[in-house]
Specification:
Elements (H helix, E strand, L loop, with lengths): L7 H6 E3 L5 E4 L12 H6 L3 E3 L5 H7 L4
Length: about 60
């Protein structure tokens, strides 16, 4: 059976944690920041967990994770 390939775009966006969770960065912090409040921008920093409904599809893209 051939090796499974990792989707490279997904590998750059997601990280598998030791406990099995999947970490992702938050969206909407790249440009058009002047109209966003400081509080909103601050809360978009850092990482969060991938939603439970999306975990299965993300794992399929990262077979060796």
């Amino acid at each position: 059976m051939p090796k499974l390939k990792t989707k490279r775009s997904a590998a750059k966006r997601f990280r598998i944690q030791a406990g099995g969770g999947i970490k992702r960065t938050k969206a909407f912090l790249r440009h058009i920041l002047t109209k966003k409040s400081t509080k909103r921008k601050r809360n978009m920093r850092g990482t969060s967990q991938v939603h439970a409904s999306n975990v299965r599809s993300v794992r399929a893209m990262l077979p060796n994770g």
